[in-house]
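ARCHIVE CARD
CATEGORY: sequence design from structure
SOURCE FIELD: tokenized fold
FIELD CONTENT:
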């Protein structure tokens, strides 16, 4: 049993409900207008498959010129391969390869990424398993020609322990690039025994790295010594620098969402994004998401205090230094796995999985205006399965939004849609 599986297995009835089954492909609903004479529904267009039926774990990013980049991983003769494609209009380009190798660590929630940093400078990461263990390392590589060629990969983490290192987020940082990740080095056997004797809380830490524009390592360090074990952190660039959101963890097992800013050469103290008081003895595998424009920062996340699942949203107008009181977007039938974008008009769009009223799952979008006014929930895809095991991705395109997710079984592969008219 992997440590991720162990984390899920010990997480109680809530996670048994949320995480047991995988989400297969969704049937896209395409409705250009409201049938009852009301507001028009968004126009949903399915994008042709480019990755193949054995591809999974997609990730989306945007280049500086607005091009949408989708990456994925799939089995190959050598083990696994990481590939990406560029979106032009409604058409993906031919796949391009980043890396290939054996003994990769493959997990639905801990996915690789290909991220344009600045101009032709791109960065990618994937996970390599450590032989004869459940441990794995995070590998990174840099391209200086917009993904056409890639430099020899290096380890993102440098601790040398046979522990887990993953849930990586890559982002531009000043004139170079940055990364944050969840790091299990405190669970190394020697450290575990030492800290257990000192009665120090044991668990996964949050680490960061700064690199120069050519991929040279400048700095690595610990941000938080105890965080939720397998909830993906996220970073957005606001005025003044990066804003990081993640699921914190207290010794009392409260796992609420916090934010930190990087200012004056250091990460700030954590500030609460939402005081949910979500107490759970295990990881919900459901990280927060964040987007920013200037001083405006928005965050969305899953929570379940009192075993009541919900999706929440909060806004900051001071570049992440503080957040207004959180807004409940969904308190009935939510499974979370959120994403969020911040539009030019300061409204936000949030996506997440929830129960469909006719059974199965709905992938929904909701618009949140700058003043907190909520638009209707819009179902853009429907699945017949009852519980998700997938993390849909969403980015803004010039004329709408692009969303991608992984299907399984008879409808396996990556599914992508374009949504406009929100």
């Amino acid at each position: 049993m992997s440590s991720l599986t162990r984390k899920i297995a010990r997480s109680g009835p809530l996670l048994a409900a949320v995480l047991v089954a995988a989400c297969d492909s969704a049937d896209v609903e395409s409705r250009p207008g409201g049938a009852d004479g009301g507001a028009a529904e968004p126009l949903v267009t399915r994008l042709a498959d480019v990755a193949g039926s054995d591809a999974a774990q997609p990730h989306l990013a945007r280049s500086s010129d607005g091009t949408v980049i989708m990456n994925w991983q799939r089995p190959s003769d050598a083990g696994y391969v990481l590939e990406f494609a560029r979106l032009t209009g409604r058409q993906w380009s031919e796949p391009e390869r980043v890396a290939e190798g054996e003994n990769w660590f493959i997990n639905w929630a801990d996915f690789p990424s290909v991220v344009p940093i600045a101009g032709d400078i791109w960065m990618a990461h994937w996970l390599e398993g450590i032989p004869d263990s459940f441990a794995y390392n995070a590998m990174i590589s840099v391209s200086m020609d917009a993904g056409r060629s890639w430099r020899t990969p290096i380890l993102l983490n440098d601790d040398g322990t046979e522990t887990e290192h993953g849930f990586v987020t890559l982002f531009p940082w000043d004139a170079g690039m940055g990364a944050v990740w969840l790091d299990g080095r405190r669970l190394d056997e020697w450290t575990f025994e030492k800290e257990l004797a000192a009665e120090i809380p044991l668990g996964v830490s949050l680490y960061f790295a700064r690199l120069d524009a050519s991929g040279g390592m400048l700095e690595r360090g610990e941000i938080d010594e105890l965080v939720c074990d397998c909830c993906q952190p996220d970073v957005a660039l606001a005025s003044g620098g990066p804003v990081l959101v993640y699921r914190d963890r207290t010794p009392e097992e409260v796992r609420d969402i916090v934010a930190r800013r990087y200012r004056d050469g250091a990460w700030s103290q954590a500030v609460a994004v939402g005081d949910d008081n979500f107490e759970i003895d295990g990881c919900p595998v459901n990280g927060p998401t964040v987007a920013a424009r200037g001083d405006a920062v928005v965050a969305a996340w899953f929570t379940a205090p009192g075993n009541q699942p919900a999706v929440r949203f909060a806004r900051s107008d001071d570049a992440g230094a503080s957040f207004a009181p959180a807004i409940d977007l969904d308190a009935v039938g939510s499974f979370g796995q959120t994403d969020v974008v911040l539009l030019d008009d300061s409204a936000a769009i949030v996506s997440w999985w929830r129960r469909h009223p006719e059974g199965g799952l709905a992938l929904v979008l909701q618009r949140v205006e700058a003043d907190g006014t909520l638009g209707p929930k819009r179902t853009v895809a429907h699945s017949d399965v009852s519980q998700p095991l997938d993390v849909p991705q969403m980015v803004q395109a010039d004329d709408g939004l692009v969303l991608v997710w992984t299907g399984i079984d008879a409808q396996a592969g990556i599914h992508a849609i374009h949504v406009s008219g929100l």
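CARD ANNOTATION: The mean pLDDT is 89. The two ends are 43 Å apart (CA to CA).
SHELF: design records, drawer C
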